[in-house]
Each structure stands twice: as structure tokens, then as C-alpha cells.
Amino acid sequence: xxxxxxxxxxxxxxxxFERGTxxxxxIMVGMDGSEAAARAAAYAAGLARRQNALxxxxxxxxxxxxxxxxxxxxxxxxxxxxxxxxxxxxxxxERLRGVFEVRWQFHTFRGDPYQGLVKAADRLKADAVVVGxxxxxxxxxxxxxxxxxxxxxxxxxTVVP
Length: 161
Fold this sequence. Notes:
This protein has 161 residues and is an alpha/beta fold.
């Protein structure tokens, strides 16, 4: 056998490669009730199903500087948004039961959307992050949450239009 046709086998570390066990274990998607976030969630659900990964759906409850002056009404409103998102997700999962199965969890975090998603991705040990593209014109100048996540360079980030 000539040297050109011989193939080298890489040394296997530890137990070696196991078919079907590589790939992402946790795919995180940010939800805020927008159309872009809904598209991102659908995309992430498809990824999670194909990869047999857990879909971690995260809603970051905004904390407003003047919230203390406004009283509990702001906190109640963000809690209502989180509750409505959970109801929508459960209804969608029930409609698709038996056709499109995916393991999912819903998490809420408080704070700035970017910092909340970073904290969530770290705590959940996300292998990938999916977010919807910002629909606000000002984000083209200042930078959107999606752009900031990409720049952080800590996880693969998919931005769904």
C-alpha cells in the first residue's frame, strides 16, 4: 500500500464518539410577544425537534427605572405578559401534539433584555440562542439585542427576520 492511499485514524479520546449524541442539548429562544419573536420560536422549535434538544423559551421581564413610583402595576403587567405567553405556548404545543413533539421549558428573568438573555443562556447552559430581528427603527443606530448577542460571541446566535 502506498503512502498516498493510506488513511490515518485519529486517536480517540475517552470513550469515543457516540452516534446521535453530539449536537446542541439546549436551544434557547427569546420571547417578548412580538411577531419576530414568534417566528424565532417556531424556527427554534424546529431546530430543537430535529436535534432532539430541549427548547428553553425565555421571557425577560423589563425593569423600568420609574417602576417604584408607579407601584405594583408595572410588575403586574409584566407578570400578565409572561402568563399570556405561557398560555399561548401551551395551546400551540397542544394543537401540535402527536404531529410535532418537542421538549420545552418556559423561564422568566428580570432586567434589561440583553442582560436577561445573557443570564438565561449562562444559567441554562444554552448551546445556541435564537432571537427575532428587532422591528424598531432606532435599533439600527444604537444596536439591537440580537446584534449585541452576536457581538458577545459566547454562543451561536441565529437572528430570525
